Task: structure prediction
Amino acid sequence: MAHHVHWLSNRHPRPAHLVVAGDDLRADRALTLVRRGRAVLWRGDYRNARQLLAAMRRRLDRRPVPPGDTPAETFHRHRAVTADRARLLNRLVLELGPGYRIDLPHAPDVSLACRQAYGPDPGPALVPLAELLGVLGAHQWRARGVLVPALDATIHPHYGVFAPTRQDYVQLVADAPWPGATTAFDVGTGTGVLAALLARRGAGRVVATDIEPRAVACARDNTRRLGLTGRIEVRLADLFPAGRADLVVCNPPWLPATPAAPLDAAVYDPESRVLRRFLHEVSARLTPGGEAWLVLSDLAERLGLRRRGELTGMFADARLTVVDRLDTRPRPRRRADSLSVYRAAEITSLWRLSAASSV
Ligand SMILES: C[S@@+](CC[C@H](N)C(=O)[O-])C[C@H]1O[C@@H](n2cnc3c(N)ncnc32)[C@H](O)[C@@H]1O
Result:
């Protein structure tokens, strides 16, 4: 592949070998090619490319992931198989002309969606179709927004930013007894959904942080849309902003595992490093009598990725006292997979914590 042609993917490496194909390529043959390490450069009808991709996916999904001997083994196997399938499916690629134009019959206009996901037009480029479909889906979500009943408003997620599609944890933050906070921090704000909720619940000033520039831009956008710019400040930061607050909220990545791509860092936290640092540093960020609210699912424990009691041990090590715990059960996903049985039992908790010396 000519190297002046840009490779657009946030997840998959540039393929070394391309095979040009069109409307007569069948899914079985396409799978044989991609399994041999080839990428298929599609020059047929755009709609046929989508159908081909769907047929390839169906074939790959036909074989269920066999469970491991332990929940953790099942989890690692599930991740490995999912990553392998994604690697194969992302080898069906399209050419983009200048201005993110697709010059194929029945191709949609993808220019705005691509600019939002990849930035300014890089000129001629190649993109995996599967990834492009994700980019288009994210663009639609951003335009339409996700209704958040607890806010009575829509939140507009940007590409690559953790979206509040699971309302359960937002509701926990809406329902927890309000500690009369006038200042609040929202650490790892994502779309800014919890920062907005804290402002709506009564915090006169909220400082929201995220380590991801995409999330910072997204949270600023949502803050503006909700008319909260005067009360919420969004900053790019590793965990805490400077100073202290009466209430510090954090919904950190909840699975102690290595992210496969930078965009997965909202979910995976290797060795619970973000969680541990949050707990160790939060006391020093609270005003006297202040509260920290940690929102965390117990899926890691159910999967055997974190020992039972390890979390409360972390609280004790960080000299944090549990004031209360509010629980909710996330609504099960529609799509069943080898982890569904663990997800069905998952509980998300809001831990109300205070600095041990302030109780
Ligand atoms: C599970 S998402 C929660 C997003 C949002 N608060 C919500 O509840 O919808 C975790 C967020 O933490 C951010 N994050 C991860 N590590 C961070 C760090 N060291 N400092 C600040 N933010 C971090 C991620 O970028 C992501 O936006």
About this structure: The chain has a mean pLDDT of 94. The chain has two domains: 6-141, 145-358.
